[in-house]
Automatic annotation (TrEMBL):
Function of the molecule: Catalyzes the formation of acetyl phosphate from acetate and ATP. Can also catalyze the reverse reaction.
SUBUNIT field: Homodimer.
Catalytic residues as annotated in Swiss-Prot or TrEMBL: D151 (proton donor/acceptor)
Annotated positions for site Transition state stabilizer: H182, R242
Broad class of enzyme this protein falls into: transferase
Pathway(s) the chain acts in: Metabolic intermediate biosynthesis; acetyl-CoA biosynthesis; acetyl-CoA from acetate: step 1/2
Protein name, UniProt field: Acetate kinase
Reactions accelerated catalytically: acetate + ATP = acetyl phosphate + ADP
Cofactor note: Mg(2+). Can also accept Mn(2+).
Species of provenance: Candidatus Accumulibacter adjunctus
Length: 393
């Protein structure tokens, strides 16, 4: 009987999923990919099959599908009827925070759940939803094995010295340290490099994950040695709606001089800043690139400038640079942004190959001391692989 792995990625108002078939040998294939968005407002389910053909598009009243448990039941109902004769062997979850404890994915047990709940204060906007999805599966099928895969785990190889903030030492012990995120994406890229670019896989590589959330990771021989994100996913690069690295004094100023509440500042930093805040137009890079507006140009310029600054910092951590790899929505799809970033990185020895860049690489440089690449990421497949491995499927 065909065995399946379900991968879940639960956000505050969405539940994304991918269903993979497990073969006795070889890589798994995604046979269904979809999401319910608008939980709590206007829930809508969209599902495609492995070839990208639409297999469902349904909309409900917000009362009908209000939380993750109900969303999961709808998804389970649809998948059960479509994949009759197959058996669901396990569920893999994207869990944002593994805290200081977890450097690898783990099989979910009641004890592990209690520990993961301890990390809710470290990621209050994401962790509760990730754990809610685990509980929702437990309710529907208590005996189904579940695996938690952490966005922080890949960065646990970073040296201790890289994990500190300059706060009194006891804050480090209380968990206020640099963790880094997008780890599943970086792990996928690290795993793909030896086949695509064997000459650089063992070297000093900076990966730029440029999506609506954006970060960069410095890798030495495929292991994380530095990242632009730190204690939270607010740090580092300019993002779709987040400002990235900024002077912490600004938060004090907003609290003390402008009288903003913590909640208002949270909203400003997570939802109203970044490309959206600077441009005043939107957070979608495609829209900004197509715009003639001066503020759209400013937002793009600043986005690229910040990538350049971070690249310099990470190259310093690595003691030089052998390659720069672009991935995620903007990194994989925008030749223009890649070109701007590579031009700015000429001092590191990157010489862009414009024709290769236009067609998407994978190698988009020629000659030069350092090379540049485009590699699609696949966080869902990374979670499915971990789940398969831990469940020995
Ligand atoms: P996430 O998974 O973090 O939501 P993605 O990795 O899917 O994000 O990236 C989303 C971003 O990718 C959006 O800002 C979108 O504008 C951008 N993007 C997608 N396609 C293109 C493109 N062809 N050119 C420029 N930006 C693009």
């Amino acid at each position: 009987m065909e065995r399946l792995i379900l991968v879940l990625n639960a956000g505050s108002s969405s539940l994304k999923f991918s269903l993979f078939t497990v073969r006795t040998a070889g890589e798994m294939d995604a046979v269904a990919v979809g999401q319910i968005e608008g939980l709590g407002t206007a829930p809508r389910l969209k599902v495609k099959d492995g070839a990208g053909e639409r297999i469902a598009d349904e909309q409900w009243d917000k009362g009908e599908v209000s939380g993750h448990a109900q969303a999961l039941q709808r998804i389970a109902g649809l998948l059960r009827s479509r994949f009759q004769g197959s058996v669901l062997a396990g569920v893999g979850h994207r869990v944002v925070h593994g805290g200081p404890d977890y450097a690898a994915p783990l099989l979910v047990t009641p004890e592990a759940m209690r520990r993961l709940e301890d990390f809710i204060p470290l990621a209050p906007l994401h962790q509760p939803h990730n754990l809610a999805a685990i509980r929702a599966v437990q309710e529907v099928q208590p005996d189904l094995p579940q695996v938690a895969c952490f966005d922080t785990a890949f960065h646990q190889t970073q040296e201790r010295v890289a994990q500190f903030y300059g706060l009194p030492y006891e804050y480090f012990e209380r968990g206020v340290r640099r963790y880094g995120f997008h780890g599943l994406s970086y792990e996928y890229i690290a795993g793909a490099l030896p086949a695509v670019a064997p000459a650089i896989a063992g070297g000093r590589v900076v990966v730029a994950h440029l999506g609506s959330g954006a970060s960069m990771c410095a890798m030495r021989a495929g292991r994380s040695v530095g990242s632009s994100m730190g204690f939270t996913a607010l740090d580092g690069l300019l993002m779709g709606t987040r400002p990235g690295n900024m002077d912490p004094g600004i938060v004090l100023y907003l609290l003390q001089q402008e009288g903003m509440s913590a909640k208002q500042i949270e909203d400003l930093l997570y939802k109203r800043s970044g490309l959206l805040g600077l441009s005043g137009i939107g957070n979608d890079m495609r829209v900004l690139l197509a715009s003639e507006d001066a503020r759209a140009r400013l937002a793009i310029e600043h986005f690229v400038y910040r990538i350049g600054r971070e690249l310099g910092a990470l190259a310093a951590v690595l003691g030089g640079l052998d390659a720069l790899v672009f991935t995620a929505g903007i990194g994989e799809n925008s030749a223009r942004i890649r070109e701007l970033v590579c031009e700015q990185a000429a001092w590191l020895g990157i010489e862009i190959d414009r024709a290769a860049n236009e067609t998407g690489g994978p190698c988009i440089s020629r000659g030069g001391k350092a090379s540049a690449w485009v590699l699609p990421t696949n966080e869902e497949l990374m979670i499915a692989r971990h789940t398969r491995h831990l469940l020995a499927l």
